[in-house]
């Protein structure tokens, strides 16, 4: 069994959970290997997601579930990867030659307190120009399962 840190100071209260949900509020271009910064933070229990850097830093140790959903603009494609402490954990493809394209993927992973997880463009595997739709269709979320 993995030890779980069951408490986190959160303001004046003790937080025993971690969860976040963030969306893109503006359409985005992609740079090679650049981190995608989901700027519209809707939920951030435990304050683990940092929209300014695009990084989720685990406030508690345990098993986490992450979900990524992307919508590309018409005639645009992209491949992104979920990274854990600099190591590729999963990939996701979204795109369509004629219409808006969608892609989604999920990962389950054990994290230690302080581990970092983020979404970044996978090398040069993306269209040029404005690739990702910014109308709240693109999201990155995660939560502590146990």
Automatic annotation (TrEMBL):
Q: Which residue intervals define the domain C1q in the entry?
A: 13-146
Transmembrane helix recorded as keyword: no
User: What's the protein here called?
Assistant: C1q domain-containing protein
Q: Write down the superkingdom of origin.
A: Eukaryota
Q: Which SMART domains match?
A: C1Q
- Which organism encodes this protein? Mytilus galloprovincialis
An example of a Gene Ontology cellular component annotation for this protein is: collagen trimer
UniProt-annotated location(s): Secreted
* Keyword terms of this UniProt record: Secreted
Please classify the protein's predominant subcellular localization into one broad category: secreted
Lineage summary: Eukaryota, Metazoa, Spiralia, Lophotrochozoa, Mollusca
